[in-house]
Structures are given as C-alpha cells and as structure tokens.
Design goal:
single chain; alpha/beta; Multidrug-efflux Transporter Regulator, Chain: A, Domain 2; Rossmann fold; 52% helix; globular; binds S-adenosylmethionine
Length: 337
Amino acid sequence: MKITETAKMLHTTPRTIRFYEEKGLITPEKGENDYRYFQEEDLWKLQTILALREVGMSTAQIKASLEGDNIQSYLDLQRSALYGEWIQIKDMITTLDQMIGESPGHEDLLNLSQQLKEVKKMRKSWKDRWNFDEQAEEYDQTIKTTGYRFNVHEHYHVALSKVKDWVEPKPEELGVDIGTGTGNLAALFMDDGTTMIGVDQSEEMLKVCLKKYPELETRPGHFLSLPIMDHSTDFVVSSYALHHLPDAEKELALAEMDRILNDDGRIAIADLMFENEKEKQRILAQFEQEGNGEAVDAIHDEFYADLSKLVNWLEKEGYNVKTHQFNRILHLLYAEK
Ligand SMILES: C[S@@+](CC[C@H](N)C(=O)[O-])C[C@H]1O[C@@H](n2cnc3c(N)ncnc32)[C@H](O)[C@@H]1O
C-alpha cells in the first residue's frame, strides 16, 4: 500500500508517517522513484505508534517500547506519569480556587503560592536512597524474624496477618498495597479472592512481585502520587514502606490514600514507628544503654513515623483510628471513615 492510501486508512497524514520514518520508528520498503510501500506489519506498527502518541508518549519512548517489545511496561509508566501531571494540575486548581474564593491580599497570595510550591517539590523530590531495585531479587531471603541484634522483621508475618484481620477484606472489594515490594502483603488479601493493585516505585521489585504473583496488577508509582483514580478503592494497606518518607511527606501520603478511598474506605499501615517523640527518645536511649549502635544507626538512617502525628491527622480528617504495638519499633495503624 502506498503512503497516501496508508495515511487515509489510518486517519493520519503522509507527513506524519514520514516524520515517524525519519525518527526511525518505521522502515517501509522503498520501490521505484523512492515510493514507500507499506506491508501489513508496517500498518500494525503505525497503528500502535499513533495509539501511543494519542496517550502522550514521546517518539523516543515509543521507539524504546517497540524495540524492547515491551509496550505494556511503557504504558504503565506513561499512566503513572499522566497521573503525576493530573495530581499536580489538581493541586494548582485547588490553590487557584482558594486565591479566587477568599479574595486574599498580596501576602496571602504569596503564602498560598509558597504552599503550592512546597507540595510540588515534595511530590517530585523523593529519591530512593536505599536502592530497592538492587535489593529486589534477595529481598524475600532477607526477611528473617530471628537471629539479628536489631531485627526490624521481628513479628513481620504476625503484623502482615493482623493488617488483613483488621481490614476484613471482602472478595468483591478492591484494595491497594503501597510499597508492595515482592507482594507479600497483597498476596494475603488475594488468597480470599479480593482484587489487589500493588504500587511500588521500584521497577525491579515489581518484576519479582509479578513473577511470584502473576495475577496481581502492579503499577509503578509513588506514595505521593498514586496512579489510581479518586474514590475508587475500598481499602489501602502498606507494610514496611512508609518509613522511607521523611515526616513532612507522610501527611501528604495519607492525603493521597484518602483521595483514592471510597466514602467508607479503610487504611491499615504496619510499619516501623514510635508512639510519639518522647517514646522515640526513650527507646533510642534504651538501645544506647544496651550498646546496640546498629539499632541507633538504623533508626537515624530512616524515617520511623511518629504514630501520634499520623493518628492526629487521620482523626482531623474524620477517621476512627485504632492502633496495635507488636514490639518496640513495630506498630499497626488502622483507620476507617
Ligand atoms: C522494605 S520494602 C517492603 C515491601 C513489602 N511491603 C513488605 O512488607 O515486604 C519497602 C518497599 O517500599 C517501596 N517504597 C519505598 N518508598 C516508596 C515510595 N515513596 N513510593 C512507593 N514505594 C516505595 C520500596 O521500593 C520497597 O519495595
């Protein structure tokens, strides 16, 4: 088929097709007088390219996804990127509404814009200092519940089971596991037929997770920019992940969970936390006294939550909250609307 017929059939223009050829996305056969001839395979490829352009992928991304023959993972990434932009636009509209509605003075405008700037920065600035991609293959073997001087995984399995007990999932429900890692928590919920989406910022963790649980839907994404629609989820769970976010970002993470939850949604987080700042100092002093420098260093290296702050935020937003302590550093926070 020649270029004009091809363009007509695909509702595009010969110029667009030539552009994709120049970018190396397609290589149609050339005949006499340099006429291009498009075979069936070229038509499929062109159709794919046009579809991917329509959802906003760049030509470079399309080229990489066609060459790697891995369109699905590029679509996943594109979805997460679009969610990120959409969430940012919503933040901007909310600020604009406040600017318009409250007829603020110059100083208020400045404050509102500063707040918006802070939120934008927070949503984008998180970096994986722990290199979870590199930990992915070995992660499950590193979960040892005994035998370490400072054992963050003591009560790991008990805690994950209790998350499920408190959430009481129903088979027709949809749940999201944030920082799903290799999917251990999500899998407990799927055992009873509940549909789960596992979100994680680490591509390699999600690969291992999918190998273990091919039936789990995984999405690349971030606590502060979840690739999930508003009010579309029955519950949100998370284990051993929130403590990778600095304190200032944790409330924004709770707000993201709240955004995706239905009106009677539940949140359950099992994580490394202290009841409050005073308890943190007391327990740190205990570890010091015990000569457990490993514990002190580990606590300083991560961002164990102040549970009282999370509880305050959730109660302020109208949640009923209950908590459970497994050991000195591991707590479960449960909240329902
Ligand atoms: C210690 S692993 C826990 C995995 C799993 N939830 C479990 O309980 O075994 C922490 C996981 O959280 C993910 N994670 C850390 N910070 C994150 C963030 N800001 N957004 C999304 N995932 C994050 C990491 O990539 C990693 O897979």
